[in-house]
Design a protein that fits this description.
The protein is 22% helix and 50% strand. It is an alpha+beta fold and 106 residues long. The chain has a five-stranded antiparallel β-sheet. It is elongated.
């Protein structure tokens, strides 16, 4: 009986906390119904950002593919020195999600 009460309390606490919480590298806001947020990943002391490279990953239901790494974004933009990098996350109902990393540099 004690386990049932403790388990019920845990479920109630999770249900009452809502569906918005921190996510991503920088801790931006994410929601269960719809999320469309952007934020920084890093900045360096390298000057100049004449080139831009992007890399993405996507997921639908229980299947996710792609490579949203800094390495791939740099390769896609021909970047050897990173100036700064940003991310963008879109998610709908926890069914579809896409993350894009954008790297700026030379």
């Amino acid at each position: 009986m004690k386990k049932l009460i403790v388990g019920s309390c845990a479920v109630a606490v999770m249900a009452l906390t809502g569906c918005v919480g921190p996510m991503g590298i920088a801790g931006s806001t994410g929601a269960f119904v719809y999320t469309d947020v952007s934020g920084p990943i890093l900045a360096t002391g390298n000057s100049g950002s004449t080139k831009v490279g992007q890399a993405s990953s996507e997921g639908i239901i229980c299947v996710a593919t792609g490579d949203a790494s800094l390495k791939t974004a740099c390769a896609n933009g021909g970047i050897t020195k990173i100036h700064h990098a940003d991310y963008h996350v879109t998610s709908v109902l926890g069914v579809y999600a896409k993350t894009t990393v954008t790297v700026y540099g030379e």
